[in-house]
Amino acid sequence: MSNTAQTTAGRTNTGATNTGAPTIDAPWPIALFSAKVKGWIDKLGTAWVEGEITQWGVSGGNVYGKLKDLEADATISFNIWSSVRAKVPDDLKQGDRVVALVKPNYWVKGGTLTMQVFEMRHVGLGDLLERLERLRQTLRAEGLFDADRRKPLPFLPQVIGLITGRDSDAEKDVLRNAQLRWPAVEFRIAYAAVQGDRAVSEVTTALKKLDADPDVEVIIVARGGGDFQNLLVFSDESLVRTAAACVTPIVSAIGHEADRPLLDDVADLRASTPTDAAKRVVPDVAEEIARVQQARSRIGSRVTNLINAEIDRLEQLRTRPVLANSNWLVDSRAEELSRYVARGSELLSLTLDRAAARVGELSGHLRALSPQRTLDRGYAIAQLPSGLALRAAKDAPKGTLLLLTVADGKLSAVAGDAETTPGDDS
User: Fold this and answer.
1) In the chain, how many domains are there?
2) Which of the listed residues 233, 256, 282 is the one where a domain comes to its end?
3) pLDDT at 373 over 90
4) Is residue 26 located within the same domain as residue 82?
5) 221 pLDDT higher than 50
6) Helix (H, G, I), strand (E, B) or coil at 406
7) Is the residue at 363 inside a domain?
8) What's the rounded Cα separation, in Å, for the pair 376 and 343?
9) φ, ψ (nearest 5 deg) of residue 44
10) Is residue 9 predicted with pLDDT exceeding 50?
11) How far apart, in whole angstroms, are the C-alpha atoms of residue 269 and residue 250?
12) How far, in Å, CA of 256 to CA of 156, rounded?
């Protein structure tokens, strides 16, 4: 026997007899370990769980699928044997929310753990609605549904963000209707799953991406309707809160008129269908041109009417007697001007006469007080050599040269003996 065979035989014998704790010197064989794991798992029994079917495949009459937690990132695999399949509803499919009675089952040969399903049924619609209503009330209390927080849509967006499924009818409806209304409009499309386990994360990521794009002026989230459970993706709390935090206006077009996920309540505009969203976001170029032409026509009509009214007013004014003959203005003012000129001339003459009389009177006073008048009466003015007038005889001793000024000239004289006038105190 070879060494390898001896070793294998020894491990088999040891594993067959060793039921204590395994050690490095006495390890368990895989079969023993697997048997013990299966025994531990079998003791767990059955449990009711709730989740969303994210995978559903049929092979050989058996069903193999996966269940995802409704909130956390956790998934389990399950199988429904053909003997049990007849007990579960026939309409179960991917995307459905269900409750299931499962039992952990460890497959020793493959070393895999699956959940064997004994019962599976749809989650009651009443339960879903109750949970949805509780979340709705919570978000409303936080003010996320308030009308005053909704942002107005741009009149003519140059770039529109679109979140939808790849090659979906919703994408075609939005693009076709928008381009028919305004051919120059541009779209930035972010494709995302709109149902299933990837929908929430992909739609949330697309919202953040388009909201961060400075060129995108409005975001449309479009899905072509669906049943109530398929639209529950758009009532996910994390997705709804992401939409509420966006600074770019959001248009929700994810269902028909009767459907109303929570995203509709936080969106800045709710459209009943993708087609309706395109019509409400993009104005019709033909309609806008027609409106502009109508406005121009109304403005032109009003301006024409105003001008015609002013022309009529001018004609009426021109036909009035006061404007029919304008000479009366000149004639009446000319007569008035003549009166003013005559009155001015009269006042000026009177003023000059009074001034002349006053000048004559002042001249007479001036001549009466003039030294020349005194000289004309025979008086003379004697001046000393210094030029001062002689006022007293003592100021001109005998022999003093004097200058005498008389009425018609001047002459020199020499002082003789002084004679004192009686009554003189000097």
Assistant:
1) 3
2) 282
3) no
4) yes
5) yes
6) strand
7) no
8) 47
9) -70, -30
10) no
11) 7
12) 25
